[in-house]
Amino acid sequence: MHFALTRHESLSHTQQHQLLEIELLPEQIRHVGDIYGGLHTLTARPVADRQGFVLLIDDIPRGFFILKRRSLLPDWARGHTRATTTLHALMIDKRFQGLGLGKQCLRALPELTRALWPDTEQLMLAVEVGNNPAYQLYLSLGWQDLPGSDSDHASFERLMLLTL
Question: Pick from 35, 36, 124, 135: CA 20 to 30 A from residue 50's CA?
């Protein structure tokens, strides 16, 4: 099984159609949305402040996520003194879950982010309080709960940080 991460815009026409076939479990859709919502996010402007990535397994799209920075940062990530990039909509096709692919994406994220935006000093994400598998995965890879998280978000999301 060959693993590769590539920018969304570099997909072939066939791969773009295959990307739409990514399926998630209903509880995962509740947490991250579906592939259509993720792709819609890629229409945000300015283009320079967001990038979609696709996980290819043997050249077929099996996962997806989005990175955002600067003007496209969500409210919960604004105001930090360090150059921040946020992770959104990490999804792995349900037929390929349990193989460590999400973990591989997350492990590749620091290097991928530095190559894309070298000024990035930290990564942030928000994970729903009830999404314990994702929370435990982030913790196992060195992400930390953000101290002093906004109390407006504390009831339904945990804010997490990875310093690069």
Answer: 135
Angle 91-93-95 (CA atoms, 0-180°, nearest 5)? 150
What Cα–Cα distance (Å) separates residue 69 from each residue in 7, 76, 98? 16, 12, 30
* Element (DSSP H or E) covering residue 35: helix 35-41
Domains and CATH numbers, the chain: 3-163 (3.40.630.30)
Q: What is the pTM of this model?
A: 0.92
* DSSP one-letter code for 100: S
**Calculated CA dihedral for residues 134, 136, 140, 143, nearest 10 degrees:** 70
Phi, psi of 31 (to 5 degrees): -80, -45
